[in-house]
Design goal:
The complex is a heterodimer. Chain A is an alpha/beta fold. Chain A is built from 13 helices and 18 strands. Chain B has helices spanning about 15-30, 60-70, 85, 90-100, 115-120, 135-150, 170-180, 210-215, 235-245, 250, 275, 285-300, and strands at about 45-50, 75-80, 105-110, 125-130, 160, 185-190, 205, 220, 260. Classes of the chains: A alpha/beta, B alpha/beta.
Chain lengths: ~425, ~300
């Protein structure tokens, strides 16, 4: 099947392309990018006014399967992904059982293949059971298809274990993704520590609970000559530490999530559990720091940290509510706000949501090279829509953005040359 | 003015006029408690549910007496706060109560924001009787009633609040209410007990008792929660008492006619010395008496009465 995308703005930062042209997909590959391609045998999609970009990649998703299929399954998570413009997602290992063995990794890959919707890259646990003590079998897991190692959701408390994880990963050419949280400082914390937590009487999570382990992990990377990726950066302090380390040539990369540049703790006054997450929504100064860090390249990646929870976990007292929000279907629209605000150029946006996550994880995609797999997202940057969680593909509804007026949406998501999502 | 709010969730939501209306109404109910027959028919046929997820003697009894003196039927429910062991969510509990059609639900809960959940999901009026470290508005109102009674006004007075501000819903509610009424609030205690950016709620912050109470018209001592010692807010009760216990000597830094308040229950010899708790400056028992009147006023206003 041939597919011809006509007259779109093709944006491929890796190949320094930003022009109006047609793109022809054949046999699952990108075969031509030219102006005025004519091909009578191809299905034609009018991409006038749209952006044609390399498929978006979310390097931080929780698909909840195996174990928590009432929150999300690999299939529904992938449906949410392609509806949000993502052709690939990396899924975190805090399932039940934890993805710390080849059999779980293979199960995830098999379920994803059966669903046949988006590409799924398992991130395996850095330590057995994500308990922070014994390393998981990085070599075997990598062979099975794990793209990175992380105890996401739980910090690696023991600095020696973190050092060994990073060194051991390096010997297999693997990456460690660090959830940076000093659990002694964040213990019992429910939201960012500051004026709002003081007003609400909720136990705060200080910014230093993030800054300190970011500094630690960067020190380990520098000392051992390894690399590390910092997950869900939320504080101005972490940004400063990462910026300074990058300047000195430390091999550190970092991601933030759309909620950390779209919302601050000021939003929390009504005890809405859909605003409860870890790390927590920070101050307005931290929000500004996220934007600056995205602008100047300190933060490489926008990831969703899509964390589905059911009403069982969320329709309870704030203190008892689970952390996390869904993000796959809102991430692109929130990130497009940064383009409108002048924080990112369209090409920068594609870097943060496609090229950079591909490079950090070492997976294919992130570019529209001739002959490359046709993982393509077509974005209407101006399409107005209103977030309505009731019609989300995700099984869960825990989004603080419900009811928000958005501008910009993925209208066509192509994975391996096949249309997996098309906006009506 | 007329009362228009469905619920009383916190002092932060109240204007000075609303606070005045509550206090004036409470003043007018004071007399009922001194009669030989301590009962008026005002709320006959109304039902008040006291839903307490956290242990309380004073506040629960005070609400119960207030309801009964107004001839309302009061039902007390003591429940376990832990949603994990309880098996029923707060929202389900609330909907069950709603189905029985009471008029007012009074809730105390260890989790901040619980009264707000209730207020959103049931049609009854909700009174917050203390939610975590967030607010305890009826305590602040009875404190302000006591201040007005003793000093004739609130505006312009200097109030010192001393103790574990970080974990105190009483402190938060008083700070909001006293600021709305034009008082000046100083808070004091070791820095481990001062929540971050507390000064942005409109208070001055001190770390020793003398500076906190200098020139104060009112001193409010907070209960040291001895069970919190484990998390290192202070090294020992001995040291806390040495530096922060309000005793006769320290009172000299305040105004001569200072009054001493405490929301109770007091730890004698920890935050307050026995001679101060029982001494001439202490209005601790007036606070308790006023608590009944304030709660009568709130039940009356929320049940649809006007002043």
């Amino acid at each position: 099947m041939k597919l011809l995308l006509k007259g779109g703005r093709i944006i491929d930062p890796l190949r320094k392309i930003d022009k109006i042209a047609d793109l022809l997909v054949d046999g699952g590959k990108v075969v031509r990018i030219e102006t005025n391609i004519e091909d009578p045998g191809a299905d034609i999609y009018d991409a006038g006014g749209m952006w044609i970009v390399p498929g978006l990649i979310d390097m931080h998703t929780h698909l909840r399967e195996p174990g928590y299929e009432y929150k999300e399954s690999i299939r529904t998570g992938c449906e949410a992904a392609v509806a949000g413009g993502f052709t690939a997602v990396a899924c975190m290992p805090n399932t039940n059982p934890v993805n710390d063995t080849r059999s779980v990794t293979e199960y995830i890959i098999r379920q994803a293949a059966l669903a046949g919707i988006a590409r799924v890259y398992p991130v395996a646990a850095a330590t057995r059971g994500s308990e922070g003590r014994v390393l998981s079998e990085f070599g075997d897991l990598k062979e099975a298809g794990a793209v990175a190692f992380s105890d996401d959701g739980k910090p690696v408390v023991d600095s020696a274990v973190m050092r060994y994880a990073m060194e051991y990963a390096a010997s297999f050419g693997a990456l460690v993704i660090s959830h940076c949280e000093d659990a002694t400082l964040s213990a019992d914390g429910l939201m960012n520590e500051g004026r709002i937590s003081t007003e609400l009487g909720l136990k705060g999570i200080p910014s230093i609970a993030e800054d300190i382990p970011v500094a630690r992990d960067i020190a380990i990377a520098e000392y051992t000559g390894t690399s590390v990726h910092i997950a869900h950066v939320s504080t101005a302090g972490a940004v400063r530490i990462i910026r300074e380390a990058k300047k000195r040539g430390v091999r550190v990369t970092a991601e933030t999530a759309p909620h950390y540049f779209s919302l601050s703790d000021e939003a929390l006054r009504e005890f809405d559990t859909n605003l409860k997450m870890n790390p927590p929504l920070r101050s307005t100064e931290d929000v500004a720091a996220m934007k600056e860090a995205l602008r100047d390249g300190t933060i490489d990646v926008i990831a969703t940290d899509h964390a589905p929870h059911s009403s069982i976990e969320k329709d309870v007292e704030f203190e008892y509510a689970a952390n996390g929000i869904i993000g796959l279907e809102t991430s692109l629209a929130l990130s497009l706000n940064l383009v409108r605000e002048g924080v990112l150029s369209p090409a920068d946006l594609v870097r943060k949501m496609s090229s950079n996550p591909a490079a950090v994880l070492g997976v294919r995609g992130g570019t529209l090279g001739i002959g490359a797999e046709a993982d393509i997202t077509v974005i209407d940057p101006n399409r107005p829509w209103t977030v309505d969680v009731r019609i989300f593909r995700s099984k869960s509804r825990n989004s603080p953005f419900n009811g928000w007026k958005m501008e910009g949406k993925a209208v066509l998501t192509i994975v391996g040359g096949a249309i997996k999502y098309k906006e009506g | 003015m007329r009362w228009t709010k469905k619920d009383l969730l916190g002092m932060k939501d109240l204007s000075a006029d609303e606070i005045r209306l509550i206090l004036d109404t409470a003043d007018s109910f004071m007399e009922v408690s001194t009669r030989e027959i301590k009962k008026v028919p005002t709320l006959r046929g109304k039902t008040v549910v006291n839903l307490f997820f956290e242990a309380s003697t004073r506040t629960r009894t005070s609400f119960e007496i207030a309801a009964k003196r107004l001839s309302a039927d009061a039902v007390n429910i003591s429940a376990s706060a832990s949603s994990v062991v309880k098996g029923e969510t707060l929202i389900d509990t609330a909907r069950n109560l709603e189905a029985m059609n009471p008029d007012i639900i009074v809730i105390r809960h260890s989790a901040a924001g619980s009264p707000h959940i209730l207020a959103r999901c049931v049609k009854q009026s909700i009174i917050n009787a203390g939610d975590g470290a967030h607010e305890h508005p009826t305590q602040a109102l009875l404190d302000m009633m006591t201040i007005r009674q003793k000093k004739g006004k609130i505006a312009g007075l200097k109030i010192a609040i001393i103790g574990d501000i970080a974990h105190s819903r009483v402190a938060r509610s008083n700070i909001h209410g006293l600021n709305a009424m034009g008082a000046k609030v100083a808070v004091g205690g070791p820095a481990t007990m001062m929540p971050r950016e507390i000064e942005r709620l409109g208070v001055t912050v001190h770390h020793n008792i003398a500076d906190t109470i200098r020139g104060a018209d009112i001193i409010m001592m907070l209960r040291v929660q001895i069970e919190r010692k484990a998390i290192c807010l202070f090294p020992s009760l001995r040291e806390y008492a040495k530096f922060f216990c309000l005793d006769r000597d320290r009172i000299r830094n305040a105004k001569e006619d200072v009054i001493i308040m405490h929301p109770g229950p007091i730890n004698r010899g920890v935050e307050i010395s026995p001679e101060v708790a029982d001494g001439p400056y202490s209005v601790i028992l007036d606070q308790v008496a006023n608590g009944v009147a304030v709660r009568m006023a709130l039940l009356y206003l929320l049940a649809g009465g006007s002043s």
